[in-house]
Predict the 3D structure of the following.
Amino acid sequence: MDFEWAFEATIGELYRAGGLALIGAFVMPFLPRPSWDLSDASPVGLSVTVVLLYTGLAFLTLHLHFEARPVLFTYLFMALVVEVWCRRVQPLKRDWLILPLVFMAWANLHAGWAAALLFLVGSLFGRLLDRIFGRVDGEEAPLIPWMGLTLLCTLATWVNPWAGDCIGRFFFCNDL
């Protein structure tokens, strides 16, 4: 399955309309955003040394992808998912609309959406452990709203040209 079909179609149309210059203008706004997100340590409370080391290592890794590739959307959208999780005790009303739309687009741009779902599930598991061991209570770390939003985001990834085929193979084929 080609999970990057929407990116490839967009880049093709941009090239046809304006060549490499238009592709460069389209991709350029996505390049610095992940580095900005990595360098913002104030909500986490990390020292400046740790932030500079982490940002430097991340840049050395990310700079290989600073070109017109669909992984740019994964960096951008993953930063958004982590930002929403880390900055909020529970999802806001707008998160119930924005995140599923992001996952819907993401599922057609790059397969990195699966990493974000793993992040959300892992974070929910960590929050559950915090509640079990009494580090936080239910009001400090609610589970139900985040479980619902994670499920909604998971369902949104099925909005792609191959969803019907995938669902059919999952439920009706014995070779899976």
